Amino acid sequence: MTYSEVLEEARKTIGDKCKACPVCNGVACKNTIPGPGAKGSGTVAIRNYNAWQNICVNMDTIYEHGTVDTSIEFFGKHFAIPVFAGPVGSVNFHYGEKYDDLSYNHTLLSACAKNGSVGFTGDGVNIKIMEGAAKTIAANNGIGIPTIKPWDLDTIKEKMEIVRTGNPFAMAMDIDAAGLPFLKNRNPPAGSKSVAELKQIVEMAKLPFIIKGVMTARAALKAMEAGASAIVVSNHGGRVLDGCPATAEVLPEIVEAVKGRIKIIVDGGIRSGTDVFKALALGADAVIITRPFVNAVFGAGEEGVKAFIEKIKGELEDTMAMTGALKISDISKDMISKY
């Protein structure tokens, strides 16, 4: 099954907001982009996509021939590609009734684990989401990354204790969810976190901890100060604040600030293996892709996820072969240009 065929099937069940477009660039869904907090004009999601298209790849096939290897090691785990599936919440409300959060997470994580990737699980007010995530992660030998929203500390601790039973190899927090409507006006308060609070959260995790939602060099340094093992350069898919720059635009300054001291992941508008290559050339260690994985699950379940991973892997292999990068560590900034 090809990914194009998967998209055709997805359009039958995915609801009326996401269009399962052949090119997922944010134009058709605009400010109806699914997800809690889909605010504003929707132009930041479009900007995310366009920023990657403004970067060109420098073709160079004068090199000693060899076999391309797209695999990476991440926190002691081996993955076939440096591409992870992003967290999604309120799945049935925003994408259709075919899946709810529990069944979506189960399908996504299982398929990713079988095909050399890893999925992040979403979060919500229903505690069963975390219970289901823990069971699925355990069934996949710890290959899954539970993502916890920036609730109050007691709620975070409770959710961490639940997901830890699944023996995940890492945990995450999407701090960029701080402005989402269902986190506002909660008692105890939820949302933004100080460095001291994040440090406490990282210590509670007792695992490599990923802070998602870093958009400045200053924020990256604060995440490091809090003890994060990795950050995700992310503006929450362009869905929480109008006027943000694209993730591709801020990635270089964050890479420069971090100087290799922690892992850097980037998301936002990455849609092809060539885009993945560009992100790695700018200094990212891996990327997160979200919406196309939603399309894959709704289109054909685990088979759809497999088709999408194969598509991305093939495109990345082709780009590496045409630029002289036989392994991920060969990819460098001089292999891309802006025109």
TrEMBL record:
Q: Which residues form the active site?
A: H236 (proton acceptor)
Q: Where does glyoxylate bind?
A: R239
Pfam families the record matches: FMN_dh
Q: Gene3D superfamilies of this UniProt entry?
A: Aldolase class I
Q: What protein family does this chain belong to?
A: Belongs to the FMN-dependent alpha-hydroxy acid dehydrogenase family.
Tell me yes or no: is Flavoprotein among this UniProt entry's keywords. yes
Question: What domain of life does the native source organism fall in?
Answer: Bacteria
Which positions bind FMN? K212, S234, H236, D267, G268, G269, I270, R271
Query: Which cofactors go with this protein?
Result: FMN
| Phylogenetic lineage | Bacteria, Pseudomonadati, Spirochaetota, Spirochaetia, Spirochaetales
Alphabetically sorted, this entry's keywords are: Flavoprotein, FMN, Oxidoreductase
The record's GO molecular-function terms, alphabetically, read: FMN binding; oxidoreductase activity
| Domain FMN hydroxy acid dehydrogenase span(s) in chain numbering | 37-339
InterPro entries per record: Aldolase_TIM, Alpha-hydoxy_acid_DH_FMN, FMN-dep_DH, FMN_HAD
Please state what the protein is called: FMN hydroxy acid dehydrogenase domain-containing protein
